Amino acid sequence: MAATRALFSLVEDELRDVERELARTALPDDPLMGPMLSLVLPGSGKRLRPGLALLACRIGQTPHPVMINMAVGVELLHAASLVHDDVVDESSTRRGEATLFTRVGNSLAVLVGDYLFAQSAARCVGTGNLRVIGLFASTLGLMVQGQVREASRGSRPHQKLTREAYYETIWGKTAALFVLAAEGGAILGGAPEPHVEAMRAYGRHLGLAFQVVDDILDYVGDEAVLGKPVGSDLRQGIITLPVIYLREELSPQAFAELFEAASIEEIVERIKASGAIDRAYQDAAWQVDLAREALAALPAGPIRDTLEEIALLALRRTA
Q1: Is the whole model's pTM more than 0.70, yes or no?
Q2: Angle value at C-alpha 111, between 230 and 43, nearest 5 degrees
Q3: Residue 319 has what pLDDT?
Q4: Residue 174 belongs to a domain with what CATH number?
Q5: How many other CB atoms are there within 10 angstroms of residue 11's CB atom?
Q6: Looking at CB atoms within 10 Å, which of 73, 117, 250, 283 has the fewest?
């Protein structure tokens, strides 16, 4: 987290304003809502998405209040999606802490997520840019579609989920929000269209790399750092790229026997001992390369250098 924050020195003053606005959002007049919001806002997470939005705004000339509305809106949308994801996945912990779903139950957690979505939309409208408002709406739709795809795999998804379907899911579930931050910020700054298109491509490939690495860390990460048990995705029936690549290494019979008879811990160890992790990292590195290539359209300087470092950090991160 410290490494990520250090990359945003160019927008550190704006990030402090974002934190203040998030803190204000967590303290509404409603005495019932406030304590629940304080469990998810502020002060948690890397603030990667709002930092990215602020850097993208700096590509052009964006008024300070508009920058803050954009960055806060992106982070609130991210927070809302996490609250709803935890409900859908019935997750008990996130970053080592009990989830809102665990603390207050299904119904209240869903409503808090809805409130955060509403606050995010208000911030987006506050940018005063119809194109960004439209991008926000399409992003929300893509995020929901990604979650629906993942939640509706049916029985035995490990046997049939393809690499293409996996990428389609994480495009909506994760990468679309990175695109909103990167492309939306560039639009607000009045950047030339080639720069907007470059940021759209950068956001997409950065988001895909980020999620692939996240899925890898679910198998090889440190539980104390991740704040969740290794193999959490498997325990929830979520199939990701390492499982798909393991399936390609084994015969259909051997793969079926592994998933029918082995424990989660044994499957995790089998994945770690296979070539699946290396192949997944190769995929992530390819996405990072594409993100960095997209930046070539931007003018050289501190903003482009920082965006490139963020892409490289996505590949090296451990949590």
Answers
A1: yes
A2: 55
A3: 76
A4: 1.10.600.10
A5: 24
A6: 250
